[in-house]
Write a structure and sequence with these properties.
alpha+beta; Beta-lactamase; 2 domains; 5-stranded antiparallel beta sheet; two-stranded antiparallel ribbon; 13 helices; 7 strands; globular
């Protein structure tokens, strides 16, 4: 497939995505996120051969939100080990909203997986014992191949001042003996990670590193342990799109992780990373246009992991 073919496919993908953005809205429970233009859409593909293809709003910065859970989980696995990390949480789809605490309180003492808020706050509890936030920013820059990543102070303050539900989750985790670190420090680390400023090209870079088995695409240096890469990609496939993960896996078939800032990270094994930006969200918190774009790319380019 030539460069012009891919550009035409991306142009069509953005066109298809734009047809659906009116059906959704920007996240409003974090007031600062509601200021985004819901009509913005962008897609970036970065291949293992370091070819970059972009269309739309691929350089506009937005906050990474739940996609940061991928980075945090990788760090926790590498510092604490698989057994410790998953002694406090499970690896199963929850079937509930990302910020739900119902099953955590009524049917399980452990968060269902690291990609929902309860699991990510548990992960943050591991991180505050091992690394500083500055360390996490530096690592995020390496993984995303983007030295411009910083914390968005406005989003951080907005999220910090509107986190009653996450605070409730954190204290519930503490009451069950899951969160052993200081609640407020763990919650602050979680919110800071969600507030990292990225763009679609950053996410494509992270996707490429994961597609490349955790190695830097140019130098070949290892940025993430091979085992951590495998765990992260598997959980992305089963749990990365909140309680829409099953349908997304059937329709798109690419390990992906969404965030309520409008981003989607997608990983095509040994081939490419895909970064999406589209802040108009469906009721599950996933980018409406972004999902449609990925579905079109998967079908047109044969990216589904079970494609013939």
């Amino acid at each position: 497939m030539g460069d012009q073919d891919i550009k035409k496919i991306l142009e069509k993908a953005v066109s298809i995505g734009s047809e659906h953005v009116e059906q959704g809205n920007c996240a409003s429970y974090i007031p600062e996120l509601s200021k985004a233009d819901k009509h913005n859409l962008g897609v970036c593909i970065l291949t293992t051969g370091l070819d970059k293809y972009t269309m739309g709003h691929t350089r506009e910065r937005f906050t990474i939100q739940s996609i940061s859970k991928v980075i945090s989980l990788a760090v926790a696995l590498q510092h604490c080990g698989f057994d410790k990390v998953f002694s406090k949480m499970n690896m199963e789809p929850s079937g509930d909203a990302f910020n739900s605490l119902v099953k955590l309180d009524l049917t399980s003492d452990k968060p269902f997986n690291p990609m929902i808020n309860a699991g990510a706050i548990t992960t943050a509890g591991y991180l505050v014992q091992e690394v500083s936030f500055d360390d996490m920013v530096a690592y995020a820059r390496k993984l995303c191949l983007d030295d411009g990543i910083v914390m968005d102070e406005k989003v951080y303050e907005s999220e910090k001042n509107n986190c009653s539900r996450n605070r409730a989750i954190a204290y519930l985790l503490q009451s069950k003996g899951i969160l052993e670190s200081n609640v407020e420090e763990s919650l602050d680390m979680y919110i800071r990670m969600c507030s990292l400023s990225v763009n679609a090209e950053s996410l494509a870079g992270l996707g490429l590193v994961l597609a490349n088995g955790g190695r830097h695409p140019e130098s070949g240096s290892r940025l993430m342990d091979a085992h951590a890469v495998r765990v992260v990609k598997t959980i992305m496939m089963t749990c990365g799109m909140y309680d829409g993960s099953g349908e997304f896996a059937v329709r798109v078939g690419i390990p992906s992780k969404s965030g309520v800032g409008g981003g989607i990270l997608a990983v095509v094994e040994k081939s490419m990373g895909i970064g999406i930006y589209g802040p108009s969200l469906d009721e599950k918190g996933n980018s409406i246009g972004g999902q449609r774009m990925l579905e079109y790319l998967s079908e047109t380019m044969g990216l589904h992991m079970f494609a013939e």
